[in-house]
Structures are given as structure tokens and as C-alpha cells.
Specification:
The chain is built from 1 helix and 14 strands; from the N terminus they run αββββββββββββββ. The protein is an all-beta fold. The chain is globular and about 50 Å long. The two termini are about 35 Å apart.
Length: about 280
């Protein structure tokens, strides 16, 4: 891994997952901030699967419009061996209703947006599997039979084969329900139900669960899970550490891997968020 990559993983460049607040990578929390608050940041990701390395950057911004309502914008760029390419942009609305009068033990958040992709980027439903030099390897359960000549093989993703947590570049309606609560130990617990409707395909679902435990006012540790609902889906588990020196700045690092054959072998993520 190059020194530049290590610098990125350590948060050496502005890198917040646009899907989350300041505390999680894979999960959205249900936090409500005051109108006019702006949050910017980005997430950097390195993923290793079947001896292949991919990199991704997701800059994002979110502004609270009125109490309980926010507008967010996320863009995605990826490096999959042929240089950096723009992949998608996702504008979304987030709604956190005030349920304090109901005296519920948790907060609720709904979000919905539409992902628009760049078809010219080449990362679409047609997914090419290219075996690297060396002994034969397992390219995943969704790969077609290997080419007898040893070359690349391609196939079309679609229908029940769509992965929600790793959606190949396609226009899609994306929505999420988030529940969040705090335990007596000051542990933050958040759960998500995610629904994705790609254009011309069936509705697919995934779940995500995040746990964050403060150790000091600045430092915290946590664990996160995200997985497709259904057979042959992707499932990912992360261990995380966070540092929040003040109310405005949040830095996070996550390391984990996949739990199914179609999931990444290893993934490392870093993120920074700044709240104005």
C-alpha cells in the first residue's frame, strides 16, 4: 500500500459517510440538530476482494432546513484499476419527527433520495470479472463459469441479485428507516431498515446495526453490521474507533470484512466530518 493511501486512511485528507451522522460508517442515526446547521465531510474506503484492490471517496454535505428536516447531497468516486471515475450523485431528504410527547425510548428518522449514476463511467449492471495472474480463485457466487481461454467474463446483475449495501452503478430510489436509543451505559444503539428500488428491477432490502460506546469525552469505540436480506447477499462487519475533540470535528477509522463469499475480504474506512 502506498504512503498516499496510508495518509488517506489515517484521515490526512478531508474524507463523513454521506449516509451517516458523526458516529457511524454503515448506519444512519436519528439525531436532530437545529435549523441552519451544516455538516460537510467525506469518507475514504479501501476494499480488498479476491486479490483485487478498489478505492472509493464519497464527499457529502447536509443542511438542516427546519426542525427535523434536512437536505443532503452525496457524490461517489471510485478507482477500480483504470483510474478515478465519477460514479453517482445522491440528493436526499431526511425527516426526524418530534416524538417527545409520546415518551418513546427511541428516536425515529426517515430518509429518501434518488441515486443518479454516470452510465459512461462503465460501472453498471454489466459487471466484468477479470482473474489476476496466478492460481484460479473464486470470483464469487454471482460470477459466470470461467472463460476457458483465461480471459475476462461478464454478466448482467439484476432482479433478486441486486445488493443493497453494494449497489452497482444504477439509477435507483433509496429509502431508509432509522431507530436510535441510548442505553444506561451511555451506549448509542442505532438500527436501520434500507429499501432500494433500482430502475426496472425488484425492490431489495437490507438491515444495518451500529453500536457506539464512549470511553472518554473525546474517544469512542464501536461495532457496525450491514447486510442484504436474502440468499447470496453481501454482509459486512466493522470495528470502529472515533475521536471527537470538540462539537464541530469528528474523525473515525473502521476496519472489517465480509461474512459471505460475495462480500469483500477486507475493508478499511476513514472519515472526517465538520459541523458548522
Amino acid at each position: 500500500m502506498s504512503p498516499a493511501t496510508l495518509l488517506l486512511l489515517c484521515g490526512g485528507m478531508p474524507v463523513l459517510s454521506a449516509h451517516t451522522g458523526q458516529n457511524f460508517f454503515l448506519v444512519e442515526d436519528a439525531s436532530v440538530t437545529a435549523p441552519g446547521v451544516v455538516q460537510v465531510g467525506s469518507q475514504f474506503e479501501w476494499t480488498h476482494a479476491d486479490r483485487m484492490d478498489t478505492f472509493g471517496i464519497e464527499p457529502s454535505a447536509m443542511v438542516r432546513l427546519v426542525p427535523g428536516l434536512a437536505l443532503g447531497l452525496q457524490s461517489s468516486f471510485a478507482h477500480e484499476g483504470s483510474g478515478w471515475q465519477f460514479q453517482s450523485v445522491l440528493p436526499a431528504l431526511q425527516f426526524s419527527p418530534d416524538l417527545s410527547g409520546w415518551k418513546l425510548p427511541f428516536q425515529v428518522m426517515f430518509s429518501a433520495g434518488y441515486q443518479v449514476t454516470d452510465a459512461a463511467a462503465g460501472h453498471s449492471h454489466v459487471h466484468v470479472h477479470t482473474p489476476p495472474p496466478g492460481p484460479p480463485i473464486d470470483l464469487g457466487p454471482d460470477a459466470p463459469p470461467p472463460d476457458p481461454s483465461g480471459g475476462s467474463t461478464s454478466h448482467v446483475h439484476g432482479g433478486s441479485g441486486t445488493s443493497v449495501i453494494h449497489l452497482h452503478g444504477t439509477d435507483a430510489l433509496m429509502s431508509r428507516l432509522a431507530l436510535e436509543t441510548s442505553l444506561p451505559t451511555r451506549t448509542q444503539l442505532a438500527w436501520n431498515l434500507i429499501a432500494v428500488q433500482p430502475d426496472g428491477e425488484n425492490l431489495s432490502f437490507a438491515t444495518a446495526l451500529g453500536l457506539r460506546q464512549p470511553l472518554t469525552p473525546e474517544w469512542s469505540v464501536g461495532a457496525e453490521y450491514s447486510g442484504d436480506i436474502g440468499a447470496n447477499g453481501q454482509r459486512l462487519l466493522l470495528g470502529t474507533v472515533g475521536w471527537q475533540p470538540n462539537h464541530h470535528l469528528s474523525l473515525r477509522l473502521g476496519v472489517g470484512g465480509g461474512l459471505t463469499p460475495s462480500s469483500p475480504d477486507v475493508t478499511v474506512r476513514s472519515a472526517v466530518a465538520w459541523v458548522f
